[in-house]
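Recap from last week: sequence in, structure out.
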Amino acid sequence: MLITSSTQQFISSKLKTMAYLNLIRYKNLIIIVLMQYLLRYGLLVPVLNYYDVSPELSDLRFGLLVLSTVLLAASGYVINNYFDVKIDRINKPDNVVVGRQVSRRTALLLHVIFTITGVFIGLFLAYITRKENYALMFIVIPGLLWYYSTTLKKQVLVGNLTIALLTALVPFVVVSLEFATLARVHGSAILHSEACSTAWFWTTGFAFFAFISTITRELIKDMEDEEGDKEAGCRTLPVEMGIDYSRTIVVILSIASIAALWIILFFVPQLRESYISWGYFFLFLTVPYLLLALKMIYAKTKKDFTIASGLSKLIMLMGILFILVARTFFV
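Predicted structure tokens:
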């Protein structure tokens, strides 16, 4: 069957588009957007309405916050792919984007564009909320992501902790920006209100879950990429301590996460009195965590670690979607 030139152009254009989407790791960006939108409209706004407080941050400005977060995350993924070409040629030879489907110069240009645009939007948000520490945060994060790609990721646990902390920051900034805006309108008293403490309580829980689940996934990825990391001189936990030791850490983190979830379920009245929460914790969090622990115990091949990495992503997604359950406590 003959393929027309227009069909060839369409296929080529589609492949090019997918190359750019893979370069910025669009699936991770979708999770970031989902987390921030669910946290604001699925939890924060209902909590504020529950305490008769009207949100003051406009939808447009919140959208700018999400855009800035996504742009800075995308810039981090691009520069990480830029510096990881040698490692990826060993670990994922079929998935190398930079230098094949996207030139190194184009990748670097995209990183610069994403970084400048993300920082500019962040500085604007810092200005309208009169929060100087926001300005510092939006300036430091791109530098930290660059340093992570070149240095931190090659150190034992340091890179893992860096990414986990940045992931935990994603939900925190949503609530922080809203209350900074509320404080400008209602005064600092709003920061000591029950609405504020409730919002921060739930946000801290989701941020901590994001932190732990990210560390777990990062360690699994290190085991998955152990061969290439060793060749590149990266001192990751699997390279330094071995696969068995790293596997044990992941299993311990998984079991500890299950224990922490059920302790929280027992001690938080709203959760304890909700049958939906019991079912959700068991089916969508505990069972996946147990499957992950079992998979890690018997994992031997690269494919096994890839499956485990997918399970860890599913767990993070399920943790985010629990916001929809938490929302029912305030409506």
